[in-house]
Specification:
Layout lengths: L3 H17 L6 E6 L2 E7 L2 H4 L6 H13 L8 E6 L3 H9 L4 E6 L24 E4 L3 H14 L2
Parallel strand pairs: 3-4, 4-5
Antiparallel strand pairs: 1-2, 1-3
Helix pairs in contact: 1-5
Length: 149
């Protein structure tokens, strides 16, 4: 049984892999029934795809792994608070929980600027847990951007 913290460790490793190839260091993991079914990192630069965020890629892989776009009961663990696109993808996939590390003051849509995941106007909501290993996740991002400016 993989814990949120252990899944975050895998997401952090994905973020490190992203940084190593010049991608913004964000990693995401999808767990179902306590088992990791997908783990990805940002690939926007490599693919020239604006939608190639870690969360979207991990959700795609998880849906392929289980053979269903409905990821009911799944937990999405990500190093950075999801943006509106990624929060929307999590809602569309019907994930049960979203756990993230660093808060995103510029694009956060799970707590900071918006909280799309708990908006009662949507037909689905997800439990949100923010700040898991926040300092470590934030440091990956600040180190990356200080080295690329």
């Amino acid at each position: 049984m993989v814990t949120d913290d252990a899944a975050m460790e895998q997401a952090i490793e994905q973020a490190r892999q992203a940084a190593a190839v010049g991608e913004v260091p964000v990693g995401a993991v999808v767990m179902i029934d306590g088992e990791v079914v997908a783990a990805r990192h940002n690939e926007r630069e490599a693919t020239n795809d604006p939608t190639a965020h870690a969360e979207v890629l991990a959700l795609r892989d998880a849906a392929a792994a289980v053979g269903d776009w409905r990821l009911s009961g799944a937990t999405l663990v990500v190093t950075l608070e999801p943006c509106p696109m990624c929060a929307g993808a999590a809602l569309s996939a019907r994930v049960a929980r979203v756990v993230f590390g660093a808060y995103d003051p510029k694009a956060g849509a799970a707590a900071t600027l918006y909280n799309l995941l708990v908006d009662p106007r949507f037909n689905h909501n997800a439990e949100v847990i923010g700040g898991l290993r926040e300092a470590e996740c934030g440091e990956l991002l600040s180190d990356f951007f200080s080295n690329h400016r």
